Amino acid sequence: MCGIIGILGKAPVTPLLVEALKRLEYRGYDSAGVATLVNGHIERRRAEGKLVNLEARLVKEPLPGIIGIGHTRWATHGKPSERNAHPIATDRVAIVHNGIIENFQELKDELLAEGRRFESDTDTEVVAQLLTSYLEHQMSPEEAMGNAMGHLRGAFALVALFSGRHDILMGARRGSSLAVGYGDGEMYIGTDALALAPFTSRVSYLEDDDWVVLKTDGATVYQGTQKVKRPIKKSGLSGALMGKGNHQHFMLKEIHEQPAVIGDTLHSYLDPATRSVRLPAMPLDWSKVSRVTMTACGTAFYACMVAKYWFEKLARMPVEIEVASEFRYREPPLPEGGVCIAVSQSGETIDTLEALRYAQSQKQTLLSVVNVPESAIARLSHVVLLTQAGPEIGVASTKAFTTQLIVLLAAAIAAGRARGTLSREEEERLALAMIELPARVNETLNMEEDYRRIAENTLAAARDVLYIGRGSSFPVALEGALKLKELSYIHAEGYAGGEMKHGPIALIDDAVPVVVVAPTDAIFDKIASNFEQVRARGGRLVLLSDKAGVARLGAKAETSIMVPDIDPIVAPILYTVAVQLLAYYTALAKGTDIDQPRNLAKSVTVE
Ligand code: G6P
Description:
Blueprint: E1 3-8, H1 14-24, E2 31-38, E3 41-48, H2 51-60, E4 67-73, E5 88-89, E6 93-101, H3 104-113, H4 124-136, H5 141-151, E7 154-162, E8 169-174, E9 179-182, E10 187-190, H6 193-196, E11 202-205, E12 210-215, E13 218-223, E14 226-228, E15 233-234, H7 250-256, H8 258-269, E16 270-271, E17 276-277, E18 292-296, H9 298-315, E19 319-323, H10 324-330, E20 339-344, H11 350-361, E21 365-370, H12 376-380, E22 383-386, H13 399-419, H14 424-446, H15 448-459, E23 464-469, H16 473-488, E24 491-496, E25 513-517, H17 524-536, E26 540-545, H18 547-553, E27 559-562, H19 571-590
Parallel strand pairs: 18-19, 18-20, 20-21, 21-22, 23-24, 23-25, 25-26, 26-27
Antiparallel strand pairs: 1-4, 1-10, 2-3, 2-4, 5-6, 6-7, 7-8, 8-12, 9-10, 9-11, 11-15, 12-13, 13-14, 16-17
Helix pairs in contact: 3-4, 4-5, 8-13, 8-14, 9-13, 9-16, 10-11, 14-19, 15-19, 16-19
The structure holds 6-O-phosphono-alpha-D-glucopyranose.
Residues 297-300, 344-346, 349, 352, 395-397, 600, 602-604 line the site of 6-O-phosphono-alpha-D-glucopyranose.
């Protein structure tokens, strides 16, 4: 969702602003813009749609200036259009903003009563107008920003450029992320270290309610009127623009990175010599934990669903899972001695962050599984279990999900060991199954053409597709359906196989493919019955199973793929790769925007 960059430089900044915006594209957006100071006046170029439109605009109307701000916008208030694109400006100040100003209507009414005229439909414009009003009442930019912070409600990150002030940029954050980059006589501010990486590796992260004044020689951070210090850290991110390698899309590249990143994550959580899991030291004793509560959004929520099976089976622990946006407003009582696990690739998803805050208020031990170590969720947690997925650019999560599963399985095994519910032999067997995964994922990727064939012949022309699975394959069915709808815009639903007869079976006809996720596990016979029920009604079956499963049901399916044999406990990870490939190749056949599907954002920083 919205990306922010600001540069206080020595040379023309517009090309650098655009370069940084390209690095923020992955977050999802529907318009973009930049503003600089030209002879002390704010000048803007904005365009609806992708950055190429803004670049074309800049070719026709170049934008000089050595100080500037840039933005990619994911519309919340006001449709995506040039008029609503950021920077939003008055003649005194230009603003780029991520998040939502929740009391914007109240503030807007007050500002309208003062006689101010609004030009856009955005909530952001109240910030620009509020600051302008303060500046016109003779406040300095610093006083204006400090004052504004006291009046704005909601979650946001902001950067402001002031007319006539070549010497300062200002930023503020509450909820949404914002990082300050330190250069040599130049300063930067942006959504994340990834955006700043081409310019500097010296980065500090603002905390909630911080506001900051950037000058060429450094940054001063405030909380209210108090100066505060935020440590400068060294970011290890590369400044090179991330490439797709030989792949047509980031998503395909990331699907193909899975054997490597699963291996890297295993390396952190597993000792191959002793075949045992190793977790970092934790301020918790699994044997005393009363309950595990897991919460997340989107694909990460399905990781929680799979993990519930693992924690219950291996550690015999009560586990509650819920999507973060519902969990926090339900305000459930959480028992003393409980652990709350938040799962998030970005570590910035606002609903997940707020759900974790709720768990904090209920005195839970906070554990997070994240891919970004400096993220807000990581910083709030008592224990951070990092996935080693590397930057994920495709909006639809792939390698982050499978590495989340690795971490969660390691945690479930550690819990089982601590609680005495898992024998040493069992742990060794599970460790071996995990160690085998990168090779089995590789074999799956080597069968890509089979997935492409099914996608082209069976799925791409469908209007609706059902996915079914049982046990830990049920969340895989949900993930398969989510991926397909996100990427190809085909309506898809996932169901627990046993639920088919309670409704979805009414949809079965010769136009609705049903993808059956069916590793041969303890309940294979049950999914086989559900398969037969669909077949008896003339349904078009796509079977994903192993050698034994395909031998048993393959001839009865319209089409089937043999997934490599694997221990059922890690099957959800391997079968996830299979459903990713089906979704990818279906979208490819349909010609949709795979890396940035319409209306979606990668890092969802608004409720
Ligand atoms: C968005 C992305 C999904 C992701 C979800 C949660 O919807 O498109 O791929 O699963 O956010 O994101 P998180 O960063 O918290 O894992």
